[in-house]
Design goal:
Helix 2 runs antiparallel to helix 3. The chain is about 60% helix and about 5% strand. With about 180 residues, it is mainly alpha-helical.
């Protein structure tokens, strides 16, 4: 009898853990969906996005009215040639190549804004990490543990900044014309 109760208890515990994992997954999905909807409502097209966007009077990105920021992309069927001239997307450039149409889309503009925000965020976090580590270091008062922790934080910040700089350089190399042409 005791063995059956122990076995049932174990099965209940396993079932309870599975239910809690499902509950946690559902909570995470709801949070991701809510954040996505919030992001789109803030940075996405406004309610009058189907109308033509006038950059002189509205915030536009890719020919669509946006609520928070603007970008230089028009979203029209135009592209940039290697020499910098803007021509119709269906035409060919003077050197015989096709114009770069992707750089004129709103998605490209949003990606550039996101990379700029990420770069600023990395800089702010790096400065905050260095300040925190320096406060730990100066207030160590002979505690080797605190000095070791501060040096570890400074090392991690330097590694993080170098990794981001490497990623930025690789993106500039991979994207035709660089990220900010």
């Amino acid at each position: 009898m005791l063995v059956q109760i122990t076995c049932l208890t174990r099965q209940f515990v396993v079932f309870y853990r599975v239910v809690m994992n499902i509950k946690q997954t559902i909570k995470s999905l709801v949070l991701v969906i809510a954040l996505s909807v919030g992001f789109v409502s803030i940075f996405g097209p406004s309610s009058s996005a189907l109308d033509a966007c006038d950059p002189a009077t509205q915030s536009c990105c890719g020919g669509v009215e946006t609520t928070v920021f603007t970008c230089s992309q028009t979203g029209q069927d135009k592209g940039a040639c290697p020499d910098g001239t803007i021509i119709d997307a269906k035409s060919t450039c003077a050197d015989g190549s096709k114009p770069d149409v992707v750089a004129n889309t709103g998605v490209w503009g949003i990606l550039l804004v996101a990379i700029n925000i990420l770069t600023a965020g990395i800089g702010i976090v790096a400065i905050g990490g260095i300040v925190y580590a320096s406060i730990l270091y100066t207030s160590a008062g002979g505690s080797q543990e605190q000095v070791k922790k501060a040096m570890g934080i400074i090392t991690n910040v330097v590694i993080g900044v170098l990794a981001y700089a490497l990623m930025y350089a690789v993106l500039n190399f991979l994207v035709p014309g660089g990220l900010f042409n």
